[in-house]
UniProtKB/TrEMBL annotation:
Protein family per UniProt: Belongs to the transpeptidase family.
GO cellular component: plasma membrane
Domain (Penicillin-binding protein transpeptidase): residue spans on this chain: 359-409
Protein known as: Uncharacterized protein
Species whose genome carries this gene: Xylocopilactobacillus apis
């Protein structure tokens, strides 16, 4: 009996403990839930407008990056115009980036890369460029502005000039002071000039040739302290050196040359950037729409102070289409050699007279396909003979009177 009573007492005690534990657990959950509700209310009611303002002021913008240009092949599949892949140092300019910020970046970047000496001479880095770089330093700008006479800051009526006019006068005043830049500063100035050429959210190439593994590693290592600087691919256009056909292919501008001045407005309207490479003559220009490809598109998220928060690729781009010619490069060489040999034998026989060249085009009469387009020029004064395949379409001769009459009779 005593054992039964003890058992019953233990069961009653266990039963009394269970509701207490549950009540304690429910109380803790209630307290945590109350804290969560309070925090949510604080965020929504007290700071809601602030957070919503940040969301509303975040900007999403697009950035386009060039892709590899299409190749040009002959009828046998041999590459006549291709691309040499290389690494490059690039700079993407953000919104409202100050010159002083670009100056700081240029000075830091100059510690890690070398610059082609030709970019440092007076032709590529003139007095205006050097003065602008010098004034991009806040201390130099403040010092020169204090030294500049008041007449360069005021108009004839004594009113203050616009900031743009004062800046222009300050550059001219600095040029007259004949400042001297060290070799290191000239390198920094060349980098600064390239960076300044970029407009908002556009990318320019700082260095495309001769980038060493060490330079690449050092720049990658310090990217966090180089805002806007990145490392990416760059393609140098390489045409065949064969003189019998190279002229037919045409030419492409480099990134430094950018868009040709004659067509810049129409090309900008088509979505080109000012520093894009573009075909400027013959096949490269005629088939530009096929060879250029589709640019890579990235989406950039900017904060309220126009700092880049994130960047993601939304379209990876597409390499330009390839161009397959009907011209057989080996056959082109053979025809060019024959044309040159015939002209040389004519000159040797004393029959050339004032003949300044010879040209030949081999075509398929049924399809119009061109298998070879050969030509040679002869300098009448020196007798030198050079290859000029474009002469077959660019050269013209005035026909004799008998030929004209025959043309009239033939209708």
């Amino acid at each position: 009996m005593k054992n039964k009573k003890r058992l019953n007492n233990n069961q009653v005690q266990d039963k009394s403990r269970i509701p207490f534990r549950l009540n304690l657990l429910f109380f803790i959950v209630f307290v945590l839930f109350a804290i969560l509700v309070f925090k949510l209310g604080d965020v929504q009611l007290q700071h809601g407008k602030e957070y919503q303002s940040e969301i509303d002021q975040t900007k999403l913008l697009s950035l386009s990056t060039p892709v590899q240009r299409g190749l040009i092949y002959d009828s046998r599949g041999h590459v006549l115009s291709g691309n040499k892949a290389t690494n490059a140092i690039m700079y993407t300019r953000g919104l409202e980036v100050k010159k002083s910020e670009m100056y700081d970046t240029a000075v830091k970047l100059a510690k890690y890369i070398s610059i082609d000496p030709t970019y440092l001479d007076s032709k590529n880095l003139n007095k205006w460029d050097r003065a602008e770089f010098y004034l991009a330093d806040k201390n130099n700008n403040k010092s020169m502005l204090a030294q500049m006479p008041k007449e360069f800051k005021l108009d004839k009526k004594g009113n203050s000039l616009s900031s743009a006019e004062i800046d222009r006068n300050l550059v001219n005043f600095t040029i007259n002071q004949k400042i001297n830049l060290s070799s290191q500063q000239k390198k920094e100035a060349a980098i600064f000039k390239s960076m300044e050429a970029a407009y908002q959210l556009s990318t320019v190439y700082i260095k495309t040739n001769g980038l060493t593994d060490r330079e690449l590693a050092e720049v990658n290592e310090h990217l966090l302290e180089l805002p806007g600087i990145s490392v990416g691919p760059y393609w140098i256009r390489e045409n065949t050196t064969n003189p019998t056909i190279s002229g037919v292919l045409g030419s492409v501008t480099s990134n430094k040359q950018g868009l040709p001045a004659d067509d810049i407005n129409s090309l900008l309207a088509q979505g080109y950037a000012r520093n894009d490479s573009v075909g400027t003559s013959y096949l490269e220009q005629g088939y530009e729409n096929i060879l250029k490809g589709s640019k890579k598109v990235s989406q950039i998220e900017l904060s309220t102070n126009n700092k880049i928060l994130s960047q993601k690729t939304i379209y990876s781009g597409q390499m330009g289409g390839s161009l397959n010619l009907t011209i057989n490069s080996q056959f082109q060489n053979d025809v060019s050699y024959i044309v040159k040999s015939v002209l040389e034998s004519t000159v040797a026989g004393g029959y050339a007279g004032k003949n300044d060249g010879a040209y030949a085009v081999v075509m398929n009469p049924k399809t119009g396909a061109i298998y070879a387009m050969a030509g040679v020029n002869r300098d009448i004064q020196t007798g030198e003979i050079t290859y000029n395949p474009l002469g077959a379409i660019n050269k013209s001769y005035v026909m004799g009177s008998s030929v004209k009459a025959a043309m009239v009779m033939g209708g």
